[in-house]
Amino acid sequence: MPDIVSPAATLLIAALLGYLLGSVPVGVLMARAYGLGDLRKIGSGNIGATNVLRTGNRTAAALTLLLDAAKGAAAVLAARALAAEDAAQAAGVAAFLGHLFPLWLKFRGGKGVATFLGTLLALAPLAGAAACLVWLAVAAAFRFSSLAALAAAALAPALAPLLGAPQTGLACLLMAALIFVRHDANIRRLLRGEEPRIGRKG
Q1: Distance from C-alpha of 161 to C-alpha of 14, rounded to nearest angstrom
Q2: For residue 202, is it within any domain?
Q3: Whole domain around residue 126: which residue ranges?
Q4: Distance between CA 136 and CA 11 in Å, rounded?
Q5: Is 200 a domain residue?
Q6: Is the pLDDT assigned to residue 189 strictly greater than 80?
Q7: pLDDT value at residue 200
Q8: Of 40, 43, 62, 118, which has the maximum CB count within 10 A?
Q9: Would you say the pTM of this structure is higher than 0.85?
Q10: Does the residue 75 lie in any domain?
């Protein structure tokens, strides 16, 4: 983790604002804007881009993916510009937690993959880009969004120090662990051969 140089109040404010930004339920809002219904009652019920894609609306899914990633990146970049790297990391991790446990949805949020990748891209661009490439490669090879997410999350804590960002290792490990926890049902379906592939309507 980075050296703690910011006052405790600054870190707390950065984390709070990051959490509130991460809590914005982009997928739910996109589904509503495009007349797709309540996303929480579609497919897996998840609020992320993969479930939006199950509605058949690729534009809404792409926007959800980009904006969910942007939540994490924006939190990091804003905190870095206004404070220091410790505040940036606090804001980014808090944005990730906000997506998982959003205030506006009674703390029942998404699985955090896009927000994780956006946060990592802003914290450590090379490690973030490498994690994105892992996601793309696994998704293209196997057509399972969950498997791609798990692979990217599993490798990110190792990629960060290897690619010059050891200060993000602990944050990566925390977020990766939560991604695995949130994918518990997906892991069980993968093992049973029942996991839906990318693009399947539900």
Answers
A1: 24
A2: no
A3: 8-192
A4: 33
A5: no
A6: yes
A7: 63
A8: 118
A9: yes
A10: yes
